[in-house]
Amino acid sequence: MNIYAEIQKLVKYGLQKGLIQPEDEIYTINQYLELYGLDEYVEQDIAGADIVLEDILEKLMQLAFEMGVMKSDDITTKDLFDTKLMGLMTPKPSAVIKEFRDAYAEDPVKATDKFYEFSQDTNYIRRERIKKDRKWKVESPYGTIDITINLSKPEKDPKAIAAAKNAKQSAYPKCQLCIENEGYAGRMNHPARQNHRIIPIEINGGKWGFQYSPYVYYNEHCIVFNGEHTPMKIDKAAFTKLFDFVKQFPHYFLGSNADLPIVGGSILSHDHFQGGNYEFAMARAAYEETFTIPGYEDVEAGIVAWPLSVIRIRHKDADRLIELADYILGKWRGYTDEAAYIFAETDGEPHNTITPIARKKGDVYELDLTLRNNITTEECPLGLYHPHAEYHHIKKENIGLIEVMGLAVLPARLKGEMELLGEYLVQGKDIASEESLVKHETWAKAIVEKYAATGTAITAENVNDILQEEIGQVFVHVLEDAGVYKTTAEGREAFRRFIAVL
């Protein structure tokens, strides 16, 4: 490997993607020479060479490790280093913001398209890792559900885990959503963000940031976050903020995780929303039944045909939806129905909240209000309206905003476990004999019985499709578990009792 050739290829990549201009070429090369401790540069003939970013970065990291510039070759150290490499050719925030605003003046779609592409070209969104995610769809009584096994977050190896444990603790940035992440070099226990850029936007009169998620669970998966490190809160202001964004970017939906543990997201300490340019099964779901709320007769309202308990409200005037959503939230926060095992609070601890999702369809604004309750019981210590224990072998984590809308984000461990389980099913091996598969034993036996009853043999050709289908159906049951009102006659009767108090 030739250090000069790899530097030259990386600079050529930057020129091809418009990250740097021809006038920046010599300057950028010199930045890389300084990083590697080199005093001279020998131009190479790279005509005809493939310009593949992942390959170039891998070679530059290998050279850095051999030269002692990169002290370790564990995954975290490599991520810190290749982000530094990309950061050297990522345009300054002011230039990125100007380009975004110029494009936005023409068309908001053009602005987001360019910024999404830019966020991938800088390797902030790692295209090659995202491609590794397993994605498929399954049919359900509620429509077509999306399933993904997330493989784009790298599993830390033992060296990286040990280094993170020994790393100096820091409160800067306060969390991974804080605006101070932009350009931050990172450390063993915090990701590098030199190649990360944030677009400032105004939401409800406050300063907010707009960026993309580095893990992109769906198309143009964006994060809209408060410029201040302030906790999540679902209130009237939250509904106003959702629609403030949708008015500025009507081609995007925007939703919020709930603001209570168990039913909330992974980061409750920083006020933020998630959105994007994607239509989830929940958005496609129709009304199961409609109703009228006194004082809001002009607002279309109904129960959505969905496993979670969702009230959808629609109107051309977003302000009417904000007023009604605040009214429904207030009623739900204080609502108790012992017969349905819904308690507003126990021992002073509040349980009821909402997961809201806002969107615009044509000239009509739409708001989905997902009723949530985080009560726990002896039988369900992780939450009564949470994936039940029988499904924890597939999904044990909280059901947050993304899952609520109909996209399963499943743990990376399932990839290896399903490959091995498929082998055991095809060969008729004893699943109980393999430690990593024991948790799947009851489920696997049920699968064997189900397909035997239909006369379908499980073969090497069909086992992957069978397991994907069955994983999908488990996720549908998980969504049903998270519904405070079940999709049964009794459950719908209880749902109507709440509607009646409105």
Summarize the structure.
This protein is of the alpha+beta class and 502 residues long.
Structural notes for this entry:
- By secondary structure, the protein is of the alpha+beta class.
- The chain has helices spanning 3-16, 25-35, 53-66, 75-87, 93-106, 108-121, 127-130, 158-166, 236-248, 281-284, 318-333, 401-404, 413-427, 441-453, 463-482, 489-501, and strands at 134-140, 143-149, 199-203, 206-212, 222-226, 253-255, 272-276, 287-291, 300-304, 310-315, 345-346, 349-350, 352-361, 364-373, 407-410.
- The chain has a ten-stranded antiparallel β-sheet. It has a three-stranded mixed β-sheet with strand order 1-2-15. Strands 11-12 form a two-stranded antiparallel ribbon.
- A hairpin with a 2-residue loop joins strand 11 and strand 12.
- The longest helix is centred in the C-terminal third of the chain and has 20 residues, at 463-482.
- The termini are far apart.
- The model has no long low-confidence stretch (mean pLDDT 95).
How many angstroms separate the termini? 70 Å
Rounded to the nearest angstrom, the radius of gyration is: 25 Å
Helicity level? 25-40%
Helix count equals: 16
Strand fraction equals: 15-25%
Structural class: alpha+beta
Mean pLDDT: 95
The coarse silhouette is globular
Low-confidence runs (pLDDT<50, min 5 residues)? Answer: none
Largest sheet, order of strands side by side?
A: 3-4-5-7-6-13-14-10-9-8
Tally the beta strands: 15
- Largest β-sheet summary: 10 strands, antiparallel
